[in-house]
């Protein structure tokens, strides 16, 4: 036999060209023969990276036609409403008065984009779409962090849009005789709008986690936001103690109470609700 030729039968044992690669574990002593795996099965068992999970959550954000429509309408409503209210608002002599329309808009301008977040988070549990995600990677902490990246991205977009509108439209709408004052304290303006926008998106997040039904959570959120707006105008001294925007209003100098106590009370209340809703979601049954 030629030394360059393989032994008899080796050609039959060699895998055919283009055949799927097989992975086989060594047989344990006294155990059953190992199960042979295809290459794609071996890759499927590898843990997905956190970046992959984040991309999956962004895909879910625009997973349906209604989600895509809301994602298109949301920025239009946010920017259009902000421009309109900021341009028609009264411009008084103080910087707080000039910032007041932008702070008031924090409650309502981003309601459409908040609705997309509510559909994503509440709908996960209503339709059990969280189940396959957690079966692929069972860590709920990584799952929550991936969704948190989506929430923070929406928050930063909303805040950036409202900040831009405030700095562009307010000077044009201010009476020349009164003088435009916000450009003297840009850091203060940005801080107020970032904090207020974060408080608004946190409210939507709490509603979506407490109510594991997309339609129910949307109904509650869309119904509560106008009520909060009305109550804040009718009973400002009382409502400020539980208003999620109390910290931003206090920082802006627009609080109806002259001390910062309502801001700390409101912040503690809503952070407590956020912690409670997170705890409930972490123990929620997937079945």
UniProtKB/TrEMBL annotation:
The chain crosses the membrane at residues 69-89, 101-122, 143-168, 188-211, 218-242, 262-281. Keywords: Membrane, Transmembrane, Transmembrane helix. This is ABC-2 type transport system permease protein.
């Amino acid at each position: 036999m030629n030394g360059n030729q393989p032994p008899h039968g080796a050609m039959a044992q060699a895998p055919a060209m283009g055949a799927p690669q097989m992975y086989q574990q060594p047989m344990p002593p006294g155990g059953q023969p190992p199960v042979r795996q295809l290459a794609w099965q071996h890759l499927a068992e590898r843990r997905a990276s956190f970046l992959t999970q984040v991309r999956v959550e962004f895909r879910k954000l625009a997973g349906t036609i209604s989600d895509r429509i809301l994602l298109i309408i949301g920025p239009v409503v946010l920017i259009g409403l902000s421009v309109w209210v900021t341009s028609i608002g009264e411009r008084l002599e103080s910087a707080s008065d000039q910032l007041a329309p932008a702070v008031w808009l924090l409650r309502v301008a981003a309601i459409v984009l908040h609705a997309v977040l509510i559909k994503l988070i509440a709908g996960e549990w209503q339709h059990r779409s969280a189940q396959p995600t957690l079966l692929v990677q069972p860590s709920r902490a990584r799952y929550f962090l991936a969704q948190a990246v989506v929430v923070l991205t929406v928050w930063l977009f909303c805040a950036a849009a409202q900040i831009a509108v405030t700095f562009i439209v307010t000077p044009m709408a201010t009476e020349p005789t009164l003088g435009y004052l916000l450009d003297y304290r840009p850091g203060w303006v940005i801080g107020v709008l970032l904090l207020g926008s974060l408080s608004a998106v946190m409210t939507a997040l709490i509603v979506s986690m407490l109510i594991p039904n997309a339609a129910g959570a949307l109904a509650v959120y869309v119904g509560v936001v106008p009520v909060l707006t009305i109550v804040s105008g009718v009973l400002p001294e009382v409502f400020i103690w539980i208003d999620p925007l109390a910290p931003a209003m206090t920082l802006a100098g627009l609080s109806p109470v002259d001390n910062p106590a309502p801001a700390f009370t409101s912040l503690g209340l809503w952070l407590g609700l956020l912690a409670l809703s997170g705890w409930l979601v972490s123990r929620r049954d997937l079945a």
